[in-house]
Every structure is written in C-alpha cells, then in structure tokens.
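Students often ask what a holo structure prediction actually looks like on paper. The answer is less mysterious than it sounds. You provide the chain, you provide the ligand, and the output is a string of discrete structure tokens encoding the 3D arrangement of the protein together with zinc ion.
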Amino acid sequence: MAIKILAIESSCDDTAASVIVDGKIKSNVVANQAIHNMYGGVVPEVASRAHQINIIPTIDTALKKAEVDKKDLDAIAVVSGPGLMGSLIVGVTFAKTLALTLDIPLIEINHHQAHAMALFIDEPKPRFPLLAMTVSGGHTQISIMRDYNDIEVIGRTLDDAAGEAFDKTGKLLGLDYPAGPIIDRYSKKGSAIFEFPEPKVKDLDFSFSGLKTAILYFVQKKKKENPDFVKENIYNICASVQDRIVSILMNKLVKAAKMAGIREVAIAGGVSANSGLREALVDKGKQLGWNTYIPKFEYCTDNAAMVAITAHYKYLDKKFADLSLTPKPRYSL
Ligand code: KG4
Ligand code: ZN
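The corresponding structure tokens follow.
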C-alpha cells in the first residue's frame, strides 16, 4: 500500500500544506500573507490570525489537488519549530487534532531539516555525506547530512540570518519587505562598485549585523553629500550588498567543504532563490570539482513539500511524535 502523508507548515507567515504519496509530491499549496508587506516585516499576531483563516482552505486544496481523501492518509506531519509561537500553535494544534480524529501517527518536523530535505524532492538527488547550507529569513547554517535523519550543524549565524541581512538592508534603502527578491532584481541592473566589509568571524560561523551597520553609515555619509544618492545609485548599491552577502556565504561554504572533505555541496532556504548565490555556487562547484544542488525555486522559500519529503523518511524510520507535542519556537537541530 502506498504511504500517504499530509504535511503542514505554519512557522512564520506562510500557511502551507502538501500531500506526498510514496515519496512523490502530489500537491504543494502555499497561502502567502501579503498583509505584512505594509508593516515592513512579519507581525506575529497578524500572522497567527491569518494562519487560522487560511489553514482549512489550504489543507482542503492540497488534498483535492492530490486527489487524496483524508480518510486514506497514513500520517500527519507538522513543523513544530523553530518559528513564531502564535504561528506554530495553529499548525501544531490542527495537526494533532487531525491525527487524533483519523487515528493515525503524528510526525514532528524541524523547519531547518525540512529546508535541507527540499534537496531530495527532485532528481538528481544528492549523495551522502552532503554539505548543505540553509539560508533564509530566520536561519543561516551549514550542516553535514550523513543521512536523511542524521544531520550535524557545523556553522551558524551569531546574529542576523542572511535573509534578514537582505531585508534589513533593503529597509535602510527604502525598499519594500521582503527586500531579498527586490535586491536580487535590482542587482542585475547595477555593478558591485561599492566595497562593504567582510566580517571577521571564526570557524564556520556567520555574522551579518556589522554589514547592516556599515551600510547604514555608508548611506548616511553619502546622503550628506547628495540627498538623492540612494535614489541615483540604487542598482549599484544593491549589486554591492548582494555581492558581499554572497561572498560571506560562499567563503564559509568553501572553508566547510575543505574542512569536511565533502564534494556534494548544496544550498537551500529562501535565500537560495538568489540568482547571485545560485551562480556563485555553480561557478565554485566547477572550479573545485563539486557536485552542486539547489532546490527548485518553489521549494526554496517556505513551503510544505519540504516538510512532506522529510516526513516520508521519518515515516520509513518510524519516527513518530506523541500527541502531547507542543510548539518549539527555538527548536534547533
Ligand atoms: O525560507 P523563507 O521563505 O522563510 C524563512 O524560513 O525565513 O525565506 C525568506 C527569506 C526572506 O528574507 C527573503 O528576503 C529571502 O528569503 N529571499 C531572497 C530571495 N528570495 C527570497 N533573498 C535574496 N534573493 C532572493 N531572490
Ligand atoms: Zn524557512
């Protein structure tokens, strides 16, 4: 009998559901919450309320698209963290209720692991051991994946995540939230002519807060000389910001690959949608003889297909959660 799992993701501002049958994604539905754009960032209380409104239609649509009846499901998977408490609680409560009423197992998923597992949705699948750098609005880390459920984190950010670096810099430049995709677009029209410092952080850890401050001072200084500086130079500033964020990420990834002696190298998470980072990974891969992997665009930013694929392998390993499961806003791997 085929294994059919419904996966739910509600850790931040996207309500998402996906159905996976025997390891193949049958549906992947994401309800975005555009309402946060007007606040310049995610407002937790607003996110929680929107999840409550969106969760039933999102799950219904995912089941319908997959042509799977909920009575035929074998398990319910849900992200329990890390994330916003008020957001997580909606998905976790819903998943527990469904598992209880359908009398099927509940599978707990870590959001970081799910981002990395997005690499295993499509062919060609990476081989183990894999070096995976997950970069998004909430996390930046480098891990060695020895198996689907065997992950060792070897580097992480000490302050902001890479996506936050894009978004907060964008805010300083007067761009809308989330600024990552806008900076990406604008970079293509400019050149990286401004030099921003590379932070000195030991080992494989990252820091992005210094970069944000450096850009703030740079913009303030330039505006004193010319109040229209940002407007007139926005494309070049964006290209310079992106260039530096990408080089910070890639330098650590190269260091990690050398230290670990691994040539299967991947990026995942929202920031892996960035064209500069994608190109840099492919170029480095060619230069250093790596096999490189990047999830399909729709599996980079938050989605439930990545949760579903993680759940499939947890189901095979019989890693089930108790119905007393509660959200873990600070759940680290
Ligand atoms: O994975 P994700 O959807 O949510 C979190 O788990 O945080 O990532 C969202 C982050 C945001 O910071 C957004 O600005 C960034 O990913 N992002 C990008 C691009 N697309 C999304 N950053 C740079 N370039 C992009 N093309
Ligand atoms: Zn995420």
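Strands lie at 4-9, 14-21, 24-32, 75-81, 106-110, 130-135, 140-147, 150-156, 264-268, 291-293.
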